[in-house]
Write a structure and sequence with these properties.
about 280 residues, 4-stranded mixed β-sheet, single chain, alpha/beta
């Protein structure tokens, strides 16, 4: 049985949080802001205050409460910040603070509480009463004859696999380890093709375009944001370079350790996008 309590843990006092954690030996931290948020300049300050400081506080309180296992949901951008040093992602606000988030949580647990990070890629799945975030892709494709994409791809998992990997981290994870999980690596072209087909647009051309073309357009958008006093956690000009690469993760790097299982990614994408389409059409 699961008891559900709704509230803003960041508004609770330390004493209230400690009371919630009393008698608990495991904690999963799944809160925070992701890279879709475009905050006021400087973005690093926003992501530091949204992701790093609350994580450090909860890790510290969890340790004080006697929690022995702490799992942090992180981002695969931290993984690629380490893997692709030539892109200087460590200087971009979002991956920079994601890396720091991991480190402060690990240090808070040092010697008393095992802290493990699961670095999450694209996640597909549904929950009652919520429209999946992937509805943000629909305007890029719906009603278009030609949809430009870059040549790269991305790692993907399902919500079920995230749950299984979380249990695996709690059971088998080692303190300080960072587990980048994956099931399927897919080109952006195939992913957009699936969305177009689900929209009934089988005649839409999904066209791979040169990265220089997209980089220029993205850089112009970065400039527009700067003039409006806002900044992406990863500048869009850098995002163009990321999307032109294969942000792939080998499932065998973590699947045998965390013991999560293979799943049907394409079926999960289909189910997720169909709900996005249904909910979007209802809102019109």
């Amino acid at each position: 049985e699961v008891a559900c309590e709704l509230g803003d843990i960041n508004e609770m006092s330390d004493e209230q949080v400690l009371q919630l954690l009393e008698g608990k030996d495991m904690f999963i931290y799944a809160a925070g802001a992701d890279e879709r948020v475009v905050p006021e300049i400087p973005a690093a300050k926003f992501f530091y205050e949204s992701n790093v400081l609350p994580t450090q506080r909860l890790a510290r309180l969890a340790r004080r409460a006697g929690v022995k296992k702490f799992v942090l949901y992180g981002s695969y951008f931290a993984h690629f910040a380490e893997k692709w040093p030539e892109l200087n992602l460590r200087k971009q606000a979002y991956p920079r603070t994601r890396l720091l988030q991991e480190e402060v949580a690990i240090l808070e647990g040092e010697g008393e509480m095992d802290v493990m990070t699961i670095r999450l890629p694209y996640i597909f799945g549904t929950m009652p009463g919520r429209t999946p975030l992937w509805s943000m892709f629909l305007p890029e494709i719906e009603g278009k004859d030609v949809v430009p994409v870059l040549a790269g791809g991305t790692a993907m998992v399902t919500v079920k696999q995230v749950a299984e990997a979380t249990l695996g981290a709690l059971q088998y994870g080692k303190h300080g380890e960072k587990y980048a999980i994956s099931d399927t690596n897919m080109k952006h072209e195939e992913f957009f093709r699936m969305i177009a087909d689900l929209l009934g647009q089988k005649g839409t051309e999904i066209k791979i375009v040169p990265v220089d073309t997209m980089r220029q357009a993205y850089a112009a958008h970065d400039q527009q944001m700067a003039e409006a006093g806002r900044e992406h956690g990863i500048h869009l000009a850098i995002t163009a370079d990321i999307k032109n690469r294969d942000a792939y993760i080998d499932p065998e790097d973590t699947m045998p350790i965390l013991k999560y299982n293979k799943d049907d990614i394409r079926a999960s994408i289909k189910e997720t996008i169909e709900i996005c389409i249904r909910d979007t059409q209802k809102q019109r």
